[in-house]
Write a structure and sequence with these properties.
Layout (H helix, E strand, L loop, with lengths): L5 E4 L3 H12 L6 E3 L8 H11 L3 E2 L3 H5 L4 E4 L6 H8 L8 E4 L5 H11 L5 E7 L3 H4 L4 E5 L3 H4 L8 E4 L6 H29 L3 H12 L5 H14 L1 H17 L5 H16 L1 H4 L8 H12 L2
Parallel strand pairs: 1-2, 1-4, 2-3, 4-5, 5-6, 7-8
Antiparallel strand pairs: 6-7
Helix pairs in contact: 4-5, 8-9, 11-12
């Protein structure tokens, strides 16, 4: 199989590190177009990085797409749609257009619709780790009409999982994972700052650690936590009132605790407890099924 010809719209940090890594894997002739090429101080950095990664900087999108097999959109989320609109007239059937911007699944779906009439193949790419650390080997999720064709880059060290032909699926997983990952960090922060006011932050963390390590596996632990959580939501909501009163007394921001109380109220109002007859479901999928039933009424 011939080595694919690659091109990047936007030559920022992600494009630079991916290009540099792929160069080491034997992919040469990579092209890039960046509207800031003649704007300082960005231009100097772009030119310096392009030289280091042996990337050819071209003057416009027409020159970029000509002869390219895979075109990466590597700008920013707010520009994803405008870039799709700008490049569509330059694409030809069979080319792969890979949007690696950290945009919502709805944005990726819209971008796919913009690209579809060109007969180029759209790929929703969700980058799941830090590109500066992992380079082209960073974990990626891919979906969309061109996901299968995009997998050719696995042969050059790229690490990806194909979620199917529906554009938006990859970015949806990334967005929803962020609910937990970002929320988890700031929830811990709120708990530990509060604990620090009483000098028990290390003991708080030890207790959290003990709870998270219960059960034979993380999945089993999650099933238990969620199952008991939806059943005992009303009682736990009242417990959060005491938490909020405590945080107010010690003058600690209570943003996450307020949100926890509100979500517990949401569980109570949906009547999960009544649905399950007061018994915690064994598997979190049972909660998902109950949610569908309860919200369809």
């Amino acid at each position: 199989m011939a080595t694919p010809k690659l091109a990047f719209i936007g030559f920022g940090e992600a494009a630079y590190h991916i290009s540099r890594g792929l160069l080491k894997e034997g992919i040469t002739g990579i092209k890039a177009y960046d509207k800031f090429i003649n704007v300082e101080p960005q231009g100097s950095l772009i030119r310096e990085r392009a030289k280091e990664a042996s990337v050819e900087l071209v003057p416009d999108l027409q020159a970029l797409t000509h002869g390219s097999d895979i075109i990466f959109s590597a700008v920013s989320a707010n520009l994803a749609l405008s870039i799709s609109e700008a490049v569509k007239d330059c694409l030809r059937p069979g080319q792969v257009f890979a949007d690696i911007n950290a945009a919502s699944p709805m944005t990726k779906e819209q971008a796919a619709l913009i690209i579809a009439p060109t007969k180029a193949l759209f790929v929703d790419v969700a980058v799941m780790g830090p590109v500066p650390t992992s380079g082209h080997k960073v974990s990626m999720l891919v979906s969309g009409a061109g996901a299968k064709q995009f997998e050719v880059l696995k042969a050059y060290g790229m690490n990806m999982e194909n979620l199917g032909e529906k554009a938006g699926s990859a970015s949806a997983l990334k967005m929803f994972r962020s609910i937990f990952m970002k929320g988890y960090v700031v929830l811990l922060l709120e708990a530990l700052i509060a604990g620090h006011r009483y000098g028990v932050e290390d003991k708080v963390l030890e207790s959290i650690e003990e709870t998270l390590q219960q059960g034979p596996s993380i999945r089993e632990n999650i099933n238990g936590l969620l199952g008991r959580g939806v059943i005992h939501s009303e009682r736990r909501e009242h417990e959060m009132d005491e938490v909020l009163a405590t945080l107010k007394a010690v003058k600690v921001d209570d943003t996450m605790s307020k949100a926890a109380k509100a979500k517990l109220r949401w569980c109570t109002d949906l009547k999960f407890k009544e649905h399950f007859g007061g018994k915690p479901p064994a598997d979190f999928h049972d909660i998902m099924k109950a949610y569908d039933e309860l919200t369809s009424k």
